[in-house]
Amino acid sequence: MHFTDVRVPNSALVGGSEAVGYRAAMTSFARGRVHIAALSVGQAQRALDESVAHAATAMQGGTAIGDFHLVQAMIPDIATGVDADRALTRDAARAWVDGTDRRIATSVTKLFCTEMVGKAADLAVQIRGGTGYMRGLPVERIYLDVRLLRLYEGTSEIQRLIIGGGLVKQAKEASRAHACARSK
After folding, report:
1. Which residues are catalytic?
2. pLDDT in tens, 37-91
3. What are phi and psi of 171, to 5 degrees?
4. What digits encode the pLDDT tens for the residues 39-51?
5. DSSP labels for 35-73?
6. How many angstroms from the chain centroid is the CA of residue 126?
7. Which of 19, 22, 83, 163 has the most CB atoms around it within 10 Å of its CB?
8. Are the C-beta atoms of residues 64 and 110 closer than 8 Å to each other?
9. Contact 150, 120 (CB under 8 A)
10. Distance (Å, rounded) from C-alpha 65 to C-alpha 68?
11. Which domains does the chain have, with CATH numbers?
């Protein structure tokens, strides 16, 4: 179906007036972004747990692979990402409850957490080597599942547009307010 030049009375609009439906949809997206971030935290934590357990038990040439410096160097990248994800998600959830600027906070959180869990999954596969992509292993499942998190509730590219546009808008508003205050 395609409509051209159709007038819709306010009484037939979602929410009963102009832009209410749009605001409701955007609010739903913001809430969903916090949920996606929380999923990312859980998946990143699982990637960390699997990586550390494997590094401690898998042997190569009689040595646990966790004793190799390159493997040791990958684990902190996952661990620091998990901690940052958790803190951002907690802050975004607080912003949601407090009613502060949710749009930017939830987009920042969703972008960072979903990008980070992708990196965590990639490192977890790398730590396992050839077995990291074997069917049925938790790391393989994480690796496949987390890619979708960057698509749900707005792609990473959309999050970047929301964040960039929102920050520029805030700066413009602050500049106008400052100019008005100086002119008084």
Report:
1. 153
2. 999 999 999 999 999 999 999 999 999 999 999 999 999 999 999 999 999 999 9
3. -65, -40
4. 999 999 999 999 9
5. HHHHHHHHHHHHHHHHHHHHHHH-EETTEEGGGSHHHHH
6. 22
7. 163
8. no
9. no
10. 5
11. 36-183 (1.20.140.10)
